[in-house]
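Good morning N.,

You mentioned wanting to compare the apo and holo forms, so I went ahead and generated the holo version with FE2/S2 (inorganic) cluster. This is what I fed in:
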Amino acid sequence: MSATTERPRLAVGRIGERLPREDAVPKVTGEFSYASDLSTPGMLWGDTLRSPHAHARVVSIDVTAALGLPGIHGALTHEDVPGKKLYGLEFADQPVLAIDRVRYVGEPVALVVAEHPEQARRALEAIVVEYEPLEPVVDMERALEQEPLHPDRPTMGHGYRDDRRPNVVRHLVIRHGDPDIAGDVVVTGTYELGIQDQAFLGPESGLAIPDGEGGVDIHVATQWLHVDRDQVAPCLDLRPEQVRLHLSGVGGSFGGREDLSMQIHSALLALHTGRPVKMVYDRAESFTGHVHRHPARIRCEHRATRDGRLTSVRMQILLDGGAYASSSTAVASNAASFGLGPYRVDNALIETTAVYTNNPPCGAMRGFGAVQTCFAAEAQMDQLAAELGLDPVELRLLNALEPGDSLPTGQVIEGSLPTREVIRRAAALPVPDQETLPRDPLRLPGGTGNTTTGEGIRRGVGFALGFKNICYSEGFDDFCAARVVLHADGSAVVHSAAAEVGQGVVGVMLQVARTELGTDEVTLAPHTTATVGSAGSTSASRMTWMAAGAVRDACRAALEERERRGGGEVDVERVHRHPRTTPLDPETGQITGERAHVALAVAAMRVVVEVDVELGLTRVVWVGTAQDVGKAVNPLALEGQIEGGTAQGLGLALMEEIVTRNGAIQNASFTDYLIPTALDMPPVEIELVEVPEPDAPYGVKGVGEPPTVVSTAAIVSAMRAATGRPLTRAPVRPDDICL
Amino acid sequence: MLAHVRIDLTVNGERREGVLRGGESLLTFLRDTLELPGSKNACEQGECGSCSVLLDGTLVCSCLVLAAQAEGHDVVTVEGLARDGALHPVQQAFVDAGAVQCGFCTPGLVVAVVDLLERMPHPSDDQIREALSGNLCRCTGYAKIFDAVRLAAGRA
Ligand code: FES
Ligand code: FES
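and this is what came out, ligand included:
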């Protein structure tokens, strides 16, 4: 290539460019319409009566008095569900409305619909439900001996290990090599994590509009339109095409919109009244209206040689799935598969049990099982480094998992996994100097709430490494459709049902289409089940890969088609699939084909904290992180994912926990459930490590989850360094760090 | 239920009137009666700032203000910031800096930053963090929001 060749200048909006979002303008002006902003003439308001009991028999429900109140257009119970009475994301174990038993506080029992939300609220108070309280199962350990909450064992018989103990959702054992093999040193620990909430800002909301022909259109904030449709239609006793799901503006999701909230309820009310019905949860209802991150108890034993090589790891992971299965079986698998961290370990025994209890249902949240085990495994690595007198970064480099190595499931890593590079790049980021005292109280742990001049401050530097799968696993038939319409004037419209929840997939799809079609004249059609096939879920860090693949394939097919026809308008739909996976063997936890996971992504994080050990307050001073991203499609959006994902991990390290008493949430508000504010977040320095994923379109990897996986572990590691305390529980409480 | 009362007030420079329902908040009145849904309802408890508006030039959580209290007063919402089709410089800075993800916090934050820069045209990083600490954002980790504030301040 000649030195004088000019580099081709890309037009605005192609892959790899640093771009503002397409939807940012309507979002800054207030015009962007979220689910809670929807309205239509003649609209009624629905509301939900929820169980006050964690566990009770429902003796009777009487809605008569509610029906007589002003403005009321209906009150429905399970008897009014025309089709299937049970639904669920993976296993239909959850009643649309409680039938004869309630299993958690907040479980939907009855619905009302009224002219005005206030009338609906009053009508709920007029419904008489007779309950016979039962003893709640609230301890995940004891759950395995108590009365089964789901005697019909809905998750068994799906290729999982048949575990006869009561309340087992899934029991998974991964046995790799000889776990009994000895090491020169042994470190053990038991770790615990509380329940974290997604706390997306846009509350659950939807608008259901009857189509006049027996069907219904549901406008809703969700993560997967088609899977919602496939759960809703059977409960309404309708064919899938009679139920159309349309994506409204989504105010964040982070896993909390994978399960249904009011989709079936609003549609029932709309079909019952023949009028559009809107439902909006307030913040307190939102806390019971979606699943949470599983709380966990994790026992670990790590053995290593004197020079620091891991010889064997044992882990026992217990996850509280709460009242219904949701995605607990997959969370359990992820916790087990990634439990060891991105380290080469030839011998391991990992046992994971997810249980049913009468606690709030748990399911998907950003990081999906890997967050919990990363916290435990990284604490073990720090302990091991201390025991051996090794530098924690060196210990991680020595054991780093790289392509060619095997996961404990026997899967050989074939794609990209630049673990060492990520460790080195994060470790090389220079940490800031300690600030002198006295200083502005805003820069003390606890901010202006700190009543001292900082005498109790101890500084600590921590490090952690985390990894997770990209895309769905274990044989799930994962695909994503996109449809491209090329107009005769050269412009194009892309149809996709890929849910934009704030992460920026709309931008990715436009960048791909503009790159492939060589034009900026590309627009996106509204996301709906009505005009295009399923995109799969916005979860598992899969949507960038899957939507980019689908849009790329559809664009290329459209261009070919136009070429073949010699011009004119073309309209093609294509389905993209990633490499096939197969299930894990139910007895050994080993792969039954080439792979159970499609691809992996790794992140390393270095953190500086200051802990005020007199007051029990922590300030995260600085975060430096390196992340394996495959290919940065839009660095601006990618940095936003890393910064935001880090903030959620910081929340779990320091402040976020749903507190329950006998199964009932005690802190369902932003007054009592704290999430990080502008004062809590440190600067985040970011290194992007781009090693293309060979099987992925343009080499991309998902980027949303690794920062959340690693940051809780990294922050608590720094707090251990500052305090010398073992800090085995997240979130860390003030008492844990007062010396 | 309380008697229905008619109020009038100025919203985004226009005289508006409407009938109040009981003790409804200014937020509900703006969203449901005046059909200005730009101000968001993420907590209705004064904890998140998504509902931030300017009331006679003062930043308030509109969920904590009774609509009746706004009678005769001047309210500016996020919908009132763009002029003649051009974004307000703060809005433009939010777009350019990548400060928007899901955007649910954005209207409240934009209003809060307009207020901050009016009071303090060149805030320090700590002043920015303190001024925005009442506005929760779950998506961004705030870094790009701080960038947007610096960008808007630098362009002024
Ligand atoms: S809605 Fe007003 S502060 Fe949250
Ligand atoms: S961008 Fe989603 S809450 Fe701020």
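Chain B has two domains: 4-79, 89-155.

Happy to go through it together on a call whenever suits you.

Best,
F.
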